[in-house]
Amino acid sequence: MKQNENKFFNKNYIAYVHSFDPPTKHFKNCLRAFLVGGLICTIGQFLRYILEDAFGLSGDELSGAVSVILIFLGTLLTGFGVYDRIGRNAGAGSIVPITGFANSVASPAIEFKTEGMVYGMAAKMFIVAGPIIVFGVFAGTLVGIIYLFL
Amino acid sequence: MQTIVFENKPKIVATGSIAGPKECQGVVGKFVDKTLQDDTFNEETYEKAERKMLLFAIEKAIENAGLKEADVRMLVAGDLLNQIISASFAAREFAIPFLGVYGACSTLSESIAIAASLVNAGYIENAVAATGSHFSSAERQYRYPLELGCTRPPQSQWTVTGAGAALIANAGSRVAITSATIGKVIDYGVTDVNNMGCAMAPSARDTILAHLKDTGRDASYYDLIVTGDLGALGSRVLKDLLWEKGVDVQGNHIDCGEIVYNVIEDEFQGGSGAGCSAVVFGSYIFDKLRKREVNKVLLCATGALLSTVSSGQGESIPCITHAVAIENV
Asked: Based on the structure, what is the number of domains in chain B?
């Protein structure tokens, strides 16, 4: 329902309520997101060097291994109840990297475990990440088709 | 006329209350019957913990009134979870006739008004009115998983973990319920589910104005006008809205949500939830009434009657406020 179709919509009151909206702290939010997001990416790059030098991985194997480790860390921190605290302050900085995706899958899995393994944990695991997967696959397919004709 | 005047003045004989660790750091800490160290209350799930808190509050109210379960004629209770499972499942533990009510966070004044009406009419000698909420069960039903790393907007409030119950009887106390004003559903078109205070403030104004008009009283008649969970911003808006109609509550208005937390960190505008008014009224305010530190209280618990489905479909938030006048006689 659009706002202007709602017969209860009181224009003056809504304008008055919006006058209390605190200004978004763009600079502070961006800085925090940059620092935390940058830190996560730096850890990823660090892992990359280690895996390359110590284990001799390269190419797809290397990026796969780095992703797996970061996903593991994101899930582990979610389980310890740390990731939500990071997220509360870092905003997009901890949501956008792959660790944020791990958090969005692990947190409902923990939450709905009480309703059983199949209908609870497994079914509800993607309530947050589902849209990301759907639109990710869709965008990937679209780009793939365009690429085919180029 | 929206107000029911109770000529036989049913009394609030006793209350029972319980609150979580975070809540007990605040003003209610010294007044509740039990402080939880652990918000799971030794249960496997938060839903069970919420139910156990409600159960505790009801048992404590009966005990504090010096009664036994078999003496209680009616239980009027509700909560926030789907199909009010906390209240119904708590009632399963008792052999007391049960009326389940839903008024979102206004459940406290709704259940007190119903219980008081039945007692005033003489149908029953006594009844227990109870409600409660739990941060973690509410968060899961209305918002996101607990461990999800998302940011909370500054207008948001924090659902109170706690429960409160009041035993209402035809005699046995000086704290009397003198009238009740049943609210209308008011919607000003607020759609932001993180700004409940501003959504509910117009409904609080409507009920308070109706109560004052019906009873012919001035706002200054009351020592305290207590709203449920408008939060800091909602309270400010309510004062403005009442002022616009020529009613000044600057000196005697308090909001349970605004006062419940000591330190505002993640709670932003303060507490919310059915448990908010139940805990604050059941402990702190009832204690003040009993000690005669305040004598005339207008309890106006405020409720937002939305669901995740209605807000998902873009509907605005209908709200309700019921007012109960509680006076020392």
From this structure: 2
All residues at 6 or more sequence positions from B119 whose CB lies less than 8 Å from its CB, including other chains = B8, B10, B125, B126, B127, B168, B169, B170
CA distance, residue A32 to nearest chain B CA (Å): 12
Residue to test with chain A: of B148, B236, B239, most A Cβ within 10 A: B148
**Number of domains making up chain A:** 1
| Chain A closest-CA separation from residue B132 CA (Å) | 21
Residue of A nearest to B151 (CA): A88
Say which CATH number the domain at B291 has: 3.40.47.40
User: What range does the domain containing B265 cover?
Assistant: 177-328
Q: Average pLDDT, whole number, for chain B? A: 95
> Do A84 and B155 count as a contact with CB atoms less than 8 A apart?
no
Phi-psi region of A79 (alpha: psi -120 to 50; beta: other; left: phi over 0): alpha
Under an 8 A CB cutoff, do B45 and A2 touch? no
Tokens of B186: 């008011």
Same domain assignment for residues B189 and B280 = yes
* Residue numbers of the domain that contains A57: 27-149
ipTM of the complex: 0.87
- pLDDT tens track for B213-257: 999 999 999 999 999 999 999 999 999 999 999 999 999 999 999
